[in-house]
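Re: the multi-chain job from yesterday

Posting the exact lines I submitted so nobody has to dig through the queue logs.
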Amino acid sequence: MRNKVISKTDFVAKIHNGASIMVGGFMNVGTVVGIIEALLKTDVKDLTIICNDAGLPGVGVGKLIDAGKVKKLIASHIGLNPVAGAKMTSGEMDIELIPQGTLAERIRAGGAGLGGFLTPTGLGTIVQEGKQVINVDGKDYLLEKPLKADFAFLLGHIADKKGNVVYNKTTRNFNPLMATACETVVVEARSIVETGQLDPDHIITPHIFVDYIVEGEKS
Amino acid sequence: MNPKEIIARRVAKELKDGDVVNLGIGLPTMVSNFVPDDVEITFQSENGMLNLGPAPLEGEEDWDLTNAGGRPVTMGLGGVCFDSATSFGIIRGGHVDATVLGSLQVDEEGNIANWIIPGKMVPGMGGAMDLLVGAKKVIVAMTHTSSGQIKILKKCSLPFTAVKEVNMIVTELGVMEITSQGIVLTELAPGVTAEDIQLVTEPTLIISENLKTMEI
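And the result, structure tokens for all chains:
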């Protein structure tokens, strides 16, 4: 059995220019800390970041935006990060805004092998532009397509060495969805335990989705 | 009493025992302070929890337990956390009885615009588009005007957040219901007349036969 536990430095060395990365978390709650710090020390650039929001300046994915490493941000909300807004206005960074429920479900669809899903969210708004409207039993829906990425950064509360993950309270949010929709998945775990110590019925992300485990800060 | 408290107090009366409710950030969050003790509401927060409680005491914050604004909250007994797909399944799936949101504009067809001012402010829609489409009842809680600008219009001039989804508007001046005929004025705040409220509202208000004073 391959050892999934590696250092943050070794992990971020796998990330290439132009990579697409899903970052779990909601206003930085549930967002990795150490992996972002390690990534900031590399020369990697032109990243596409997929995250619920833009965090805050100097916080979470906001740090990657501040450092000019993000070419495109796909998010539902950027209102609390004026730096992101300014970079969008100046054209320095491309931002695609997606309704939060649609973002979550597109990622779920990406990880679940679905060709998309039909949602009433966004009908009659800017979100509808360029999308197919499908009528089912007299009701209109937008066709939304799956979303996948090269990497997922998950913040786990506890991971076992096999890669099973549990989250803590509202840090869960997008993390378990992103775990399923990316080529290479890393969990930054606040604590790493021996395999077998987690109750199988309490595990949220099954180990087959997780490729690497790095040690995070203790909570 | 300040306008926001008047609005929050009145909206709180709209919530029924047993309801599942999602409150937006800002003014709508205040509504939870005025729910009577004998009314039990399950507050849902779109970042992934049920049984959202009040803000914690200073020094007792748990930064792993936050609301959709990223601020620490508490959790009531029986509370539960889940991922974002489950959270929006709850919202879109019609399992939320009411949502309370602020807004930039609302119009007489029940259209709402509150996520973008092109060229000026682009915060994003967050979960608002899903909440508007999915919640059984949409209550807009907002000050009647903003720096003198009229917000209740014949047609929203800003890009829509959702089409024909608003059911009720509560402002510091009164309560209005959106119907297929137009906006019906059902309640007036103490000391406010129907003429006063019409002056700061673009569409012609239909005065309810049962027009009464807003209880706050």
